[in-house]
Amino acid sequence: MNCYSFFLWFELWVIMQAIFDEMCVVLDWGKPTFIPTKGDPSIVLVVGLRGSGKTTTCVKYARYHREMGYSPALVCADTFRAYKQLKQSAWSAGVPCYGSYIDWDPARIARQEIEWCRKDGHDLIIVDTSGRHEQEGALFEGMRRLVEATKPHLVILVVDSRIGQTALDQAAAFKRNLGVRRGAVILTHLDGHPKGVGALSA
Ligand SMILES: Nc1nc2c(ncn2[C@@H]2O[C@H](COP(=O)(O)OP(=O)(O)O)[C@@H](O)[C@H]2O)c(=O)[nH]1
Ligand SMILES: [Mg+2]
Predict the structure, then answer these.
(1) Facing residues of 158 across strands?
(2) What integer is the mean pLDDT of 141-170?
(3) What is the structure's pLDDT at 134?
(4) Cα–Cα distance measured from residue 5 to residue 62, given in angstroms and rounded to the nearest whole number
(5) Are 182 and 197 members of one domain?
(6) Quick one: 127 and 103 in the same domain?
(7) Which of 36, 84, 170, 187 has a 20 to 30 Å separation from 202 between CA atoms?
């Protein structure tokens, strides 16, 4: 590499670093809403519409916290097929996964499997849900039952940012209908879609 191309690469690196630092400042909202306590089991319920990216987010959230020194576990409060999907992703991320191949009631599965997670000493229990209902009323009813059954310390709403500014309406509808104590929103599909910016601004 000659001197000229070295300086070109160096300049490019400086520009990229400056953009990255500026993005960190813009996206930093300060202190997180919720920090799980190490050693004390915290329950995080992940809700959202079907295909929004809940399962993917659950695994990322678990892996991130494992790297931070927690002992996370994933619980699948969904169908048998979804359990298989979660188990596969959880296995590749090295996170234990709990679920049922025989029960069909999400609230009952969640309650039972959370108990197993507690017994196994996990301090961060992440519950993945289905969001499969066709009717809005049934969806919220199903989620209310899950909130009742799991008594979560945090409810995360996963929103596909490709819906743009409608993300705000979706978050408001969840807040109104679930009436949770502590909630957060995670936007997915921010990579490679222009509408993501709309969702972010909303
Ligand atoms: N590009 C991209 N794809 C994603 C993201 N999050 C999830 N996906 C993909 O979206 C699809 C649905 O995700 P999944 O987690 O199964 O959604 P769920 O039905 O809400 O559990 C899968 O193919 C994921 O790989 C993201 O942030 N970016
Ligand atoms: Mg899923």
Answers:
(1) 48, 186
(2) 92
(3) 65
(4) 41
(5) yes
(6) yes
(7) 36
Which ligand 1 atom is nearest residue 128's CA?
Answer: 21
Domain harbouring 192, CATH code: 3.40.50.300
Beta bridge partners of 77: 129
pLDDT at 30: 76
Residues, CB-to-ion distance under 5 Å, ligand 2: 54-55
Q: Which ligand has the minimum distance to the alpha carbon of residue 76?
A: 2
Q: How many A from CA of 157 to the centre of ligand 1?
A: 14
Q: Are 52 and 139 in contact (CB under 8 A)?
A: no
Residue of 84 and 197 predicted with greater confidence: 84
- Judge if 110 and 74 occupy the same domain: yes
Q: Which domain holds residue 15?
A: 1-30
Q: Tens digits of per-residue pLDDT, 97-121?
A: 999 999 889 999 999 999 999 999 9
Same domain, 109 and 195: yes
